[in-house]
Specification:
86 residues, mainly alpha, 5 helices, elongated, transmembrane helix, Phage-related membrane protein, membrane, transmembrane
């Protein structure tokens, strides 16, 4: 029982790293809980998934500035990156 609890908790580490890089938290949590010794270096060395990060930002209520293509808050009237009206 104790081993299972430890596996569940340490699986959160590679899952959090992978989520920050635009990957699925649940898949990486399972992978990390099953074989942590492989999942942690894999999560650290993999490249960011830009499409996944953009999908996550859109789902979190962000929108793209039509002038500079940076993500800004949905309620913004002026882009914080380029300073133009949106």
């Amino acid at each position: 029982m104790g081993f299972l609890l430890v596996a569940v908790l340490i699986g959160l580490i590679p899952a959090a790293i992978a989520k920050g890089k635009g990957r699925s938290f649940g898949v990486w949590w399972f992978y990390g809980a099953a074989i942590f010794i492989v999942a942690l270096p894999h999560a650290l060395l993999m490249k960011s998934n830009q499409a996944g990060i953009e999908r996550q930002q859109l789902a979190d209520g962000m929108k793209k500035c039509r002038h500079c293509a940076e993500f800004i808050k949905q309620d913004a009237n002026v882009c914080r990156y380029c300073g133009r009206d949106v």
